[in-house]
Amino acid sequence: MHRPDYLALDEQGREYRRKAKLIGELPVGARAFALIEATAVIATKTGLNPVKQIPFGSPVFTAFDGMNRPKAKHHAESKLLLTHGDDVSLDYCPCYN
């Protein structure tokens, strides 16, 4: 699948068109599947066991067994685990690579 176009804002607040980079920049109908894919990829990368898909508006760590904010802060992949689902890069979604 190709990455859809996204209308972003530059430093002066003007719109410009670019390819989507984050799950939150996808059309609403495509986000759930992207989060499912990202959950599997991130589970492999972090070595954590997913108990649900990454929620769109919550931190990534909430999808993994036994994780909480303090544990996520001390994990080797803390930056990724503390990212909210809508801000997860499409690089974690195989169908958009």
Please give a structural write-up.
By secondary structure, the chain is α+β, with helices and mostly antiparallel strands. The chain contains three helices and two strands. The protein has helices at residues 28-46, 69-74, 78-81, and strands at 5-9, 15-19. A two-stranded antiparallel ribbon has the order 1-2. A hairpin with a 5-residue loop joins β1 (5-9) and β2 (15-19). It starts with a strand and ends in a 16-residue tail after the last helix.
- State the distance separating the first and last CA atoms: 8 Å
What does the overall shape look like? Answer: globular
Q: Count every helix, treating DSSP H or I runs of 4 or more residues as helices.
A: 3
Radius of gyration: 14 Å
List the helices and strands and how they pair.
Blueprint: E1 5-9, E2 15-19, H1 28-46, H2 69-74, H3 78-81
Supply the key terms.
single chain; about 100 residues; alpha+beta; two-stranded antiparallel ribbon; 3 helices; 2 strands; about 10% strand
Task: Please sum up the structure shown.
The chain has 97 residues and is α+β, with helices and mostly antiparallel strands. It has helices at residues 28-46, 69-74, 78-81; strands at residues 5-9, 15-19.
